[in-house]
Amino acid sequence: MCRGCVETEYPGRGNTCLENGSFLLNFVGCVECNKRDFVLITNRATEEEDGEEIITYDHVCKNCHHMIARHEYTFSVVDDYQEYTMLCLLCGRAEDSISVLPDDPRQAAPLF
């Protein structure tokens, strides 16, 4: 992973978890070829471990194939919630949790 290619290392992204794609606003340019172009996704792999889906891939420079960052996205169902996480030098870190029920019990207003 290359810290020189990104503006901010592991920026906080709130609840924005990317299963695919790149956060290009954080890409300052490739330190190897000094170009700021598209970022390719390579070595994409999907694994399933104990009910958790893990997707990993590499962000590489379109021109010289310099590796910019390794992206990891996870998805699992815990109790009545879908849990998402993302960790990547380029795209950042984020977590999200969404209820699988029609009405999220965490969002219900108290009756009293």
UniProtKB/TrEMBL annotation:
GO molecular function, one term: zinc ion binding
Keywords in alphabetical order: Activator, Developmental protein, Metal-binding, Transcription, Transcription regulation, Zinc
Domain of life: Eukaryota
GO BP: any one term: positive regulation of DNA-templated transcription
Pfam families to which the protein is assigned, alphabetical: Churchill
Family classification: Belongs to the Churchill family.
UniProt protein name: Protein Churchill
Upper taxonomic lineage: Eukaryota, Metazoa, Chordata, Craniata, Vertebrata
